[in-house]
Amino acid sequence: MINGAESLSRRLKSILAFSLLFAYILSFQFEGQVLYSLLNLHQMEAFRYIFAGMVMHFVGLFSCGFFVKSSRAVKSVMLTGMGLCVIATIPFFFAPSVLWIGGLLVGGCASGCSVASWGHFLKIYTPKNERIKSSADVLIYSNIIMIGVNVVAIHLSPYVGLAFSVFCLLIGIVFTLALPSQRDASAGAEVTSRANSDIWKPLLLLCLFVVIITINSGLMYQVMNPAFQHLTGLVSWYWAVPYIIALILMRNLPQTVKHSMLLYAGMAMIMGAFICFMLLGRNTFDYLVVDTLMLGACGIFDLFWWSILGEMLDYTDNPTKVFGIGLSANVLGVFLGGVLGVAVTSVQLPSAEVAVIALAIVCVTVAILPLLNRQLVKLLKSHAYLAAYDSMNADQQTAILNQTEPLDPLTAREQEVLEWILSGRSNREIAASLYISESTVKTHARNIFSKYDVTSRAELISTLLRKQNDN
After folding, report:
1. By C-alpha distance, which of 139, 159, 200, 114 is closest to 15?
2. Is 290 in contact with 223 (CB distance < 8 Å)?
3. Nearest one of 68, 82, 163, 84 to 115, comparing CA atoms
4. 177, 402, 417 from 115: Cα distances, Å
5. How does pLDDT run across 235-281, given as a tens digit for each residue?
6. Of all residues in the chain, what percent carry a pLDDT higher than 70?
7. Which of 143, 296, 363, 421 is most open to solvent, judged by the fewest CB atoms within 10 Å of its CB?
């Protein structure tokens, strides 16, 4: 049995391991300032190298879950991938050669596999109601570290920045090694997942949404950022600050706040960023306005789909596949946006027309969002439906339970357990509240499922809420 302190320690180690890995990826492998600085130092065409690493990062993310199916293999894959990244980075300490492309190809795929593998650690070490916080934590920590690496690379030396990023990766390997074996870790984890074919429709729709909205991120990299490259000192440290602030605010929002409304606010911020890019100049104030709007929106959307992917992990026996495919959509969107950005730049399209393209992309995502919301509600009943249940008063909650009669009457204790289930409590929390054992709670839950002719909590909640909506 894993105690609370030990569970927290494992969760923290997994967060730190991934944060350091992701800091390396953000600062070097994936559109990183260290890579850009090295390419600029040697006066080399950037997009060929940037896109090569991006494509292979997508391949690693997307494919990892198809051949890593055993939970015992996940730690080995993550460690191997991080080790290959270290080796693949070595050629960049020397003069440019074909090994640079080779390093980006190998490192991109390896880093993608490592990131996808972390989906397994997110599932077993972080309770499902806390995954939005763990997702926010890794994004915040990795971006703070990335800022430090960028400052070193731009103001001191690209090679020192490269060494700093590799050092982060090595420390990440140490934290990964400190994680227990999968057999030991699984022994203390509450197994809540079951294979669910219904996961793929909402996952694919989520991926479509992510791909489209992140096309604007690719445009930002290739169109916006170069326009402010003369503000090197400011860009080196401020670029990700609005992103981090947005993540901190989102992480600590009370549950009563409607998070879905923030997505529309994020879309408005993206539109505002491109409109300001079109109307304003290219001085310091203009950069602060454009970057704050754009990166703040990126923080809102990134935490949205990372947390949704985290919730989806309870509905699959292969979290590596779900997490990897979900994040590969982000990479694909940035890649497509980057290609579009290169095309826009090559024909010297006016900023007004670039803004029109960005606004059109946002309009498409606005149309997709309601459909995506419906699909996610159908799947993540314990995530979306429970929020609706908790917002009702006691009379409304009682009405829901009375409108759907079980096949056999519930006992008084089963009625209590049902109410706790609908409040989103885990078996352990219900046991503590009712002063009974977890095994007893599970027995009551099975009886409740049988009496409502369902097979899981999600199906039970869906049945009750659907009946209420029908009436």
Report:
1. 139
2. no
3. 82
4. 16, 46, 38
5. 888 989 999 999 999 888 875 566 667 888 888 998 899 899 888 88
6. 83
7. 363
